[in-house]
């Protein structure tokens, strides 16, 4: 029977055969077409990709679910605040780079003078001008070194502040929003987008400032040398303005679309890896691989769009930035023939044009980097726009009694998962909540620990709604421990005293002893000073969960909500741990949500939750005596 169910379980999934393909077939290049047909097809594909980028951009501004993307104004204000806070360094950066650019522009003018001296004055004064060139070059090298040094300090300082801001923002996110939105999107934002923003802040912004200064001063120097030679070249260069403006207008939408596709890839990959056993058991590996292939193909289309935008821009820039070399020589030859310019001026103009193309290329390149960085910053700042899920009031509980009244909750509108639950917990009581998977046990635990606000009714401690308490106060009243746990990089001591950093070692050892982990901690190379976490001393899932429980003991809330807190520990260890906790939990109010019914057996009362309702409430013996009750049936199945 079981094998038959496994063989047919994949078929119970929705059939997506009639769904539209992940990528519009029109986005695939034609085969065997003429050059004209291929060009027309490319234009159509570019238009379709632009429409998709516009659609993603607009939906990202006002998402129904998931994380929003901040507007351009928010990005500008963020960057402005970072720069204003470092205005002295910024002024020094501008001045030093301006001096470096100015000294660099003096050299071509001196070389032009050398040419005129050689032609007109039979070499008189050559030594003086040559020495002046050497002096200017040395000064330029000094200013360039100081400017680069200042740029590095400015960029690194900017980067550190930007990262600290993002970390603070993420830590302030409402837990309900974090769990309700896409994990892959959040992971992408705090990994790829942080890296992209970092590169833009660290390198893009300083280099863009330097390039802009160099370009502006080069234009001034060209005009001072000869208006006749400068204007035609500058007019040719200015023809790239429209292509650059079009690119800067279109590129952000393309880059936001790219970021969204990376989030989609990460989401699918995370779901597949975390549900690997389910995928294998239900024979869904082919579907998951196909989903991943579709995500990659969608991402490739988004990248083709931005690559096309760059190619169009660079084709215009190549012509606009290289043609002035020829224009300068042609106009210079004509002007020299009629005596309007000298050979020295022509030489200087050619050198200026040659020197201008490099900074212009770099400026456009850095603007592109800043565009990508601004897009990533907009995605990161979008996290900060998530509204808080509570507004703490200046109230404090009058007592320790936890009471839930008419608790209803819905993850989707008009689809309640809890239906008017009432629970009045006695101080010091241990209440077990049992029921089948999906019955609403964990949701109830989240309401009783103040993670989410109920749709109706209230969960209150000492007469105050949990969601009206400041978080730092709430966690000293009620704490939630789930089956998920995290070990931070640091010592064993650091991990345990997170909630109360002034806790002495005696308290830490007592907490470890209470959860049955003192022996193995003492055997670690450095005891409490042993570093654990990613890349450090590895822990088993059971040991990591024991560290989390010891952390909770140090926090010392009067009410604990344990949501299958020992589910990742083997039954023997779990039984031992729960037994050792009994003495410690004496006098605390404990809500234990579990699948293992031996937890319920030890509780003072048991609440049986079925389909979002408490259908039975009483002690173990009272409920077992109800032969036709839900708990009695569960107990018989558990003990048989």
- Which residues form runs of ≥5 with pLDDT under 50? none
Instruction: Let me know the largest β-sheet.
Output: 6 strands, mixed
Rg (CA only)? 34 Å
How many individual helices? 22
Helix-strand blueprint:
Blueprint: H1 2-9, H2 35-61, H3 72-84, H4 87-120, H5 126-171, H6 175-180, H7 183-225, H8 227-238, H9 241-274, H10 276-281, H11 285-337, H12 343-384, E1 402-412, E2 415-424, E3 430-434, H13 441-448, E4 456-461, E5 464-465, H14 471-477, E6 478-482, E7 490-491, H15 492-496, H16 505-514, H17 518-522, E8 531-532, H18 541-555, E9 559-563, H19 571-584, E10 589-593, H20 597-601, E11 605-610, E12 613-618, H21 620-624, H22 630-639
Parallel strand pairs: 3-10, 3-11, 6-9, 9-10
Antiparallel strand pairs: 1-2, 1-4, 4-5, 7-8, 11-12
Helix pairs in contact: 2-9, 2-11, 4-5, 4-7, 4-12, 5-7, 7-8, 7-9, 7-12, 8-11, 9-11, 9-12, 11-12, 16-18
């Amino acid at each position: 029977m079981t094998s038959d169910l496994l063989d047919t379980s994949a078929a119970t999934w929705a059939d997506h055969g009639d769904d539209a393909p992940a990528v519009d077939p029109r986005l695939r290049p034609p085969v065997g077409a003429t050059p004209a047909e291929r060009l027309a097809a490319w234009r159509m594909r570019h238009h379709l990709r632009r429409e998709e980028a516009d659609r993603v951009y607009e939906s990202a501004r006002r998402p129904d679910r998931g994380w929003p993307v901040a507007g351009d104004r928010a990005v500008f204000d963020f960057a402005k605040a970072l720069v204003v806070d470092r205005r002295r360094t910024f002024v020094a950066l501008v001045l030093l780079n301006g001096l470096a650019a100015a000294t660099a522009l003096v050299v071509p003018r001196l070389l032009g003078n050398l040419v005129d001296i050689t032609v007109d004055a039979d070499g008189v004064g050559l030594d003086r001008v040559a020495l002046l060139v050497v002096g200017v070059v040395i000064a330029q090298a000094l200013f360039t070194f100081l400017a680069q040094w200042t740029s590095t300090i400015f960029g690194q300082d900017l980067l550190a502040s930007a990262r600290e801001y993002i970390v603070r923002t993420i830590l302030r996110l409402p837990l309900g929003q974090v769990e309700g939105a896409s994990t892959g999107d959040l992971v992408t934002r705090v990994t790829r987008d942080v890296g992209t923003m970092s590169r833009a802040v660290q390198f893009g912004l300083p280099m863009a400032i330097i390039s802009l200064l160099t370009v502006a001063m080069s234009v001034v120097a060209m005009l001072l040398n000869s208006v006749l030679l400068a204007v035609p070249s500058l007019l040719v260069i200015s023809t790239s303005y429209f292509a650059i403006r079009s690119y800067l207008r279109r590129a952000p939408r393309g880059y936001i679309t790219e970021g969204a596709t990376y989030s989609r890839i990460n989401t699918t990959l995370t779901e597949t890896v975390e549900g690997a056993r389910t995928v294998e058991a239900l024979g869904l590996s082919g579907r998951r691989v196909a989903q991943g292939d579709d995500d990659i193909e969608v991402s490739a289309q988004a990248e083709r769009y931005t690559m096309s935008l760059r190619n169009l821009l660079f084709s215009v820039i190549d012509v606009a930035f290289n043609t002035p070399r020829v224009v300068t020589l042609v106009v210079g030859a004509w002007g020299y023939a009629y005596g309007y310019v000298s050979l020295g001026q022509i030489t200087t103009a050619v050198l200026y044009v040659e020197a201008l193309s490099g900074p212009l290329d770099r400026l456009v390149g850095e603007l592109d980097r800043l565009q990508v960085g601004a897009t990533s910053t907009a995605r990161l700042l979008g996290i900060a726009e998530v509204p808080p899920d509570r507004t703490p009031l200046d109230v404090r509980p009058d007592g320790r009694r936890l009471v839930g009244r008419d608790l209803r909750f819905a993850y989707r509108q008009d689809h309640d998962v809890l239906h008017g639950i009432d629970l009045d917990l006695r101080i010091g009581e241990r209440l077990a909540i049992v029921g089948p998977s999906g019955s609403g046990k964990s949701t109830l635990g989240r309401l009783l620990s103040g993670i989410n606000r109920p749709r109706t009714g209230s969960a209150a401690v000492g007469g105050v709604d949990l969601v009206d308490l400041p978080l730092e106060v709430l966690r000293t009243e009620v704490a939630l421990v789930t089956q998920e746990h995290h070990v931070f990089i640091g010592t064993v001591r650091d991990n345990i005293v997170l909630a109360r950093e002034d806790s002495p070692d005696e308290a830490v050892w007592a907490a470890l002893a209470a959860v049955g982990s003192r022996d193995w901690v003492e055997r670690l190379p450095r005891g409490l000073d042993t570093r654990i976490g990613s890349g450090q001393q590895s822990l088993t899932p059971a040991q990591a969960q024991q560290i989390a429980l010891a952390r909770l003991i140090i926090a010392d809330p009067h009410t604990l909500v344990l949501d299958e807190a020992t589910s990742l520990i083997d039954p023997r260890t779990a039984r031992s741990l729960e037994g050792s906790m009994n003495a410690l939990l004496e006098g605390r109010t404990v809500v234990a949500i579990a699948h293992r019914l031996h937890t319920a057996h030890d509780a003072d009362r048991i609440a049986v939750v079925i389909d979002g309702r408490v259908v039975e409430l009483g002690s173990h013996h009272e409920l077992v005596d109800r032969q036709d009750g839900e708990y009695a049936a569960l107990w018989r199945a558990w003990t048989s």
